[in-house]
Design a protein that fits this description.
single chain; 0% strand; 79 residues; elongated; mainly alpha
Length: 79
């Protein structure tokens, strides 16, 4: 789980440091886009053992939700 937590922590720090809408959009794509790092974590859920899948899924979803909220908040501040 620490990989997911560190990914989310770094993502939130990067979002907070974004200086403009273009940089913020690039972060959104890199994190939540089709080939984004959080999206990749979601895709890997199927390869986990069944007993680990639920906890990992919850952690990834929490990270995704936190990143989405931070992106929306930062976007509102930059506009």
């Amino acid at each position: 789980m620490s990989e997911i937590e560190s990914l989310a922590g770094q993502a939130l720090a990067d979002i907070a440091a974004a200086q403009g809408p273009e940089q913020l959009e690039a972060l959104r794509v890199a994190l939540l886009g089709k080939s984004g790092s959080i999206t990749a974590q979601l895709k890997q859920l199927g390869s986990l053992p069944a007993d680990q899948r639920k906890a990992a899924g919850e952690a990834i979803n929490l990270a995704r939700d936190a990143v989405s909220a931070a992106l929306a908040e930062r976007k509102a501040l930059l506009e």
